[in-house]
Amino acid sequence: MIASIFYAILVFAVLVVVHEAGHFAMAKKVGVRVLRFSVGYPPKVLGFRRGETEYSIGATPFGGYVRMLGDEVGEKPTPDEIKLYLHEIGLDLIGAAREHGAVLDAADFDDNLRTLAERLSASGAGVAQTILGRELKPDEALLLNEVRGEPKVDEAIKTLAEHPPTVLVEEYCKRAFPTQSLGKRVLIVLAGPISNIIFAPLLLTFVFMYGVPQLLPVVGKTTKDLPAAKAGLLIGDKIVSVNGQPMETWADFSKTVKAGDGSPVKLEIDRNSAHSTIVITPTRLDQKTIYGTNATTWVIGVQPRGDEIAKRYGPIDAVKEACETSVEMTVQMVVGIASIFTGSTPVREALGGPIMIAQMAGQEAHRGIANLAMFTVMLSLELGIINLLPVPLLDGGHLLFFVFEGIKGKPLELRYREAMLQVGLFLLVALMAFVIFNDISRIVQG
Questions:
Q1: Burial class, 147, CB count within 10 angstroms (exposed 0-12 / middle 13-18 / buried 19+)
Q2: Chain CA centroid to CA 314, Å
Q3: Does domain 212-311 correspond to CATH entry 2.30.42.10?
Q4: Model's pTM, two decimal places?
Q5: Using one digit for the tens of pLDDT, what is the confidence trace for 291-349?
Q6: Among 309, 342, 380, 412, which one is least packed by beta carbons within 10 Å?
Q7: Where, residue-wise, is CATH 2.30.42.10 in the chain?
Q8: Phi and psi (nearest 5°) for 419?
């Protein structure tokens, strides 16, 4: 079980990094300041700062987040938000000075910033270029001037935050998420789930090049009173061809039989190195589909024995196969999610929580790295699709707010957003409690 938990955490960490990297990259692309990129939730276990962003690992592994400058959509920044921004500016200055060889205290923010303020007060040309490697920005100059005029750094920051000059507010608004155009905010929010969806064919390409396990067309079981058993097909028979078409995998065999629309199929089989031919007429049978619904399909009544080979593709074929497989899986998941809402698939059968995911991760890892990668692909697509659902707290919920904003021409009132977020939180907590209980029930019931 410990190994299963480890693999589940590993898979989730990869998917969270992919998801949040989408938000992060798009935010940086459009000029929004990213304060923190975290894998896992607080308390923080490890962390370091590079440039404008702190990168951290939290103690709660199942999740992560990107924190951007600004909290409330379309509203004037509060003094607390300006304080945070000024502190970040101070960290920028200290970091730039250290990168260019300035000797500063490793721990004390106030002393370091005051030292910089004094050094950069020199009127000689190129002082900032020498110390920082660049010229001072307008907001940085404001902060250093205020620091030089106040006995304490926190008093300087408080004074500026409570009475921010126009230029400081303008610089803040250039970098804050809430004050970006609606189009930019939509792109940032969409980038997370889209990254998960795009990640699927990318990972699949490497899987197909590495070698994906595929079932061989070897009979493992025949069902009594169905055509295969009546025709004399036996356990261990290898299906060489169907109607003259070679069968490389069990999936090829199954697809060919079902696509025949009930026409007799001529099977060439290999039985103990001896070749023979059997003609079987499929029968119609109700089966549960991958969408969770019942459908009538053509079958002959056989199951595979479980023999596998690792089928490898060349780079071009791997890309093609990865894209086609990703599209098929995406369609299956969308239809599957729709079947839950329509009630055609019982919720208890369709939903699983962290316990089930950990079990599945352990099972797939035991079967091989390719199987674990395929499981990761499936979860990545699910994460991308589910995050697009219009539920508050999910990316789709933010996009729903943006739709309201686009229709009204202004952001939805704060009280409505807060109410919807509370409803979303309640729904997500209730869902998590349900799936965990469901997982435990599966274990107890065997």
A1: buried
A2: 27
A3: yes
A4: 0.83
A5: 445 567 888 989 999 888 888 899 999 999 999 999 999 988 888 788 777 766 666 66
A6: 342
A7: 212-311
A8: -65, -45
Per-residue tokens: 368? 């091989």
The answer to whether 265 and 243 are in contact (CB under 8 A) is yes
**Nearest CA to 192 among 16, 393, 420?**
16
- The rounded radius of gyration (Å) of the Cα atoms in the chain is 30
For residue 431, give both structure tokens.
């869902």
- Given 3-state DSSP classes, what are the helix, strand and coil percentages for the chain, each rounded to the nearest 5? 55, 20, 25
> Is-contact 395 388, C-beta < 8 A?
yes
SS (H, E, C) 188-200: HHHHHHHHHHHHH
Q: What is the pLDDT of residues 135-163, one digit of tens each?
A: 899 999 999 999 998 888 999 999 999 99
Residue appearing with tokens 């940032």? 188
Q: What is the Cα–Cα distance from 231 to 227, expressed in whole angstroms? A: 6
CA 178 distance to own-chain centroid: 23
CA distance 155 to 175: 24
Residue 403: CB partners within 8 Å, gap ≥ 6? none
What is the CA angle 361-25-374, rounded to 5? 20
